[in-house]
Amino acid sequence: EENRENARRILNDGISLLNESDYEHKFKNYPEAQASVLHGVAQASMHLGDYNQALSYLEEASIYNPEDISIYRDLTIAQLRCGEKNSYFLIDAVEMGLDDCEVSLIEAESAYAGENYESAYEKAVSAAEKAVDSRKENRQEIIQRSALLAVESAERCGKSRECIDFSVKMSEVSGRFDQIFWLRKAGELCAKTVDDGQNSDSETADTCISQGISCYEKIMDCGYAQSTDFYNLAYLYEQAGQLMECRELLVQMYEGE
Question: Do residues 204 and 169 lie in contact, with contact meaning Cβ atoms separated by under 8 Å?
């Protein structure tokens, strides 16, 4: 939800800039900057699931900066999400030197758009792993986008355990703030899985509870805990029978309000 709020803010700020009366004058001699604004608005739209709007901004961005491979990459993805099975932009992107991890991300997006979530999960995991190993610059964006798609695909096809394990793995290879994001994602999945009763045996349930507690305790140690982190950790403490820890956490929450 926090990421969606950030996307909404970027989208609103970008659209406000594009709607300014002197917008064209400001960017008249800076087409690459104009393309960057349009691309940023398009990416925010994609994050919010509005691929038709994103496609419009991306097509305009490609006019102002036809050498930016990332624009063609996202054009391809937007077309796939809008129902196009064969994107002509992919040819341009490949010819311009699209990285292997970006090709895998596009393949994952294509599988997801076709509701083949099992394949989308596998290809998105592959994209994230390739991005982690890549020596090229600005791979963090591909890591996060691929990983988010992998998690979303895993949830769609019932791969709860795989989803949790992958989120934990991503937390181990991410920078500080991304690490917190992935720890929170893994913790939320653990709490949801336990609450939904998806664990069929006590050993698996105990593993899930323990993993969730570990994730949330790491977030607490970093000092970036949100209210939902406290609630979920208290719930997992209760499920683990750690009633003293649960009580202390609830008291801490109460006194902190």
Answer: no
